Amino acid sequence: MLARTLVQKLPIGARAFSSTCARNAAEVKRLGVVGAGQMGLGIALVAATKARVPVTLVDASETSLDKGLAFADKLLSKDVAKQRITQDEADAARALLQPTTILEDLDSVDFVIEAVPEIPSLKFDIFSKLAEICPKHAILATNTSSISITRIAASTTKDPNDTSNSSRVVSTHFMNPVPVQKGVEIISGLQTSQETLDTAVEFCKKLGKIPSISKDSPGFLANRILMPYINEAIICLETGVGDRDSIDAIMKNGTNVPMGPLQLADFIGLDTCLAIMKVLYEETSDSKYRPSVHLRNMVDAGWLGKKSGKGFYDYQ
Ligand code: NAD
């Protein structure tokens, strides 16, 4: 109800209206997820366990699919062990995950969520293909952390006046780890229709999430606030204001968060953190968003955090 009220308060001129429309959330009978990494896998698993919809899970890499599904098995076993779900429910959810390396297998989804790496050209390419492959009623959502939704929507059409594809593009920006974090940011581009936005809000509620509405502005809400905080922590480390443990301890114990900023950066992925800081810096031309040199160096070294085995902490 709150989310719907907020949706209605967004400036009307900023939203396109289209007759080609996405269905309502109850009619989402099949979800597509593109990218089976940390975020995509989490989204697929939540859809299978909470909304109980079949999920076509696409990844360009067989290895990533295998790794993702092995991780899904581990999370489901943990849920069974902790009696959060029964073995039958876990088996049913697992059977709903249908892996593939073929993007064209998304030809029967009602809603698709893209979660490939934060590379603008890659997302634009995928959205131009999704607009062709997915049924015309399907909603095309992105999990981007920082790329303009308006720009992603624009990649679905060659004619800006034809909004039949761009009006069904929206962002459902889930938080990491998806099965745990309740928050999700719903961001509309300039072309996004009201029905698309409403359906995205309702579908995320079906996944057990609490949506917040944000405008299409660099970093949206969550990362506009979170990333400069993480970046500043890395600058404190690089300039010797404090060591790793002191930085994380004071924020953890002083602000009652589950982990400090450096550990959080490792969990998010340092490449993702750097990509978001670059967008904030370049899109606003504001020096307060300058990415830390040490963060750049860590990424250049291939030390990306938990996913690569080494970041500010060691995960080998
Ligand atoms: P990741 O690197 O863990 O996973 C990306 C997956 O996409 C990989 O499995 C890769 O094989 C696959 N992929 C690459 N190219 C592909 C293609 N052409 N087609 C299909 N699959 C392809 O990345 P992630 O951390 O899951 O991030 C995904 C998205 O979610 C990014 O846009 C990121 O900014 C956003 N995001 C990340 C976090 C986070 O904390 N990691 C939080 C919110 C949003």
Automatic annotation (TrEMBL):
Residue span, 3-hydroxyacyl-CoA dehydrogenase NAD binding domain: 31-215
Domain 3-hydroxyacyl-CoA dehydrogenase C-terminal span(s) in chain numbering: 219-315
Pathway: Lipid metabolism; fatty acid beta-oxidation
Residues carrying the site annotation Important for catalytic activity: 173
A molecular-function term among this protein's GO annotations: oxidoreductase activity, acting on the CH-OH group of donors, NAD or NADP as acceptor
Positions annotated to bind NAD(+): 35-40, 59, 118, 123, 145, 176, 307
Protein keywords: NAD, Oxidoreductase
Gene Ontology biological process terms from the UniProt entry: fatty acid metabolic process
PANTHER family (alphabetical): 3-HYDROXYACYL-COA DEHYDROGENASE FAMILY PROTEIN (PTHR48075), 3-HYDROXYBUTYRYL-COA DEHYDROGENASE (PTHR48075:SF5)
Sequence similarity: Belongs to the 3-hydroxyacyl-CoA dehydrogenase family.
Protein name: 3-hydroxybutyryl-CoA dehydrogenase
Organism: Neurospora tetrasperma (strain FGSC 2508 / ATCC MYA-4615 / P0657)
